[in-house]
Sequence to fold (184 residues):
Amino acid sequence: MSRLLSLWLPLCLLSILSPSPTAAAQFSVYGTGAIAEYGLKPVNSSTLSFKSGAPGFVIGGFYNFPIASRVTVGLDLRLAENPGTKGGTASATAFRVGFVPHHIPLRPYFEIGAGVISTSTNTELVNDQVRSGTYTSGSAIIAFGLDIPVTHSFDIRALDIGSEASGSSGAVYADTGIVFHFGT
Fold:
């Protein structure tokens, strides 16, 4: 009996003091088709004047830190490109928080961060308050999205909606596409 107790006590202490398992870090890349509206703020106005929607794409990648939780936390780097006179370019680095439910195969997330936005004027916006040219400035970004897992390595990005704005320009966009995960 005393031998059993002498083995039992160290095993209990070892199980209590052993490090808890953590989730593996995960790196993912994505590519989506997007529709975006870029806008500029006229000189004597507090609101942006938007050009018509421009088709384009969003590419990027995110890294989820290794934590053992249904909540995921990471960083996202993204680039949105909408070519043509109605488009522009927006890039950002964002803090990303996601949630992985137990029984529902959905992965909602939101992001908040900073980046750079660039857009040019076109005939829709040129007037006595908006001069012709290209406007580039630092910006803030907020985005919400929903990924639907297909396999452990592949998701469908059902919807990603976001806004990126600075003091003089901005963009709103919606996109959908695919996500590939590494390290799952």
Notes: The beta strands are 26-40, 49-50, 54-64, 71-82, 88-99, 107-120, 134-149, 154-165, 169-182. Residues 1-22 have pLDDT under 50 and may be disordered. The longest strand covers residues 134-149.
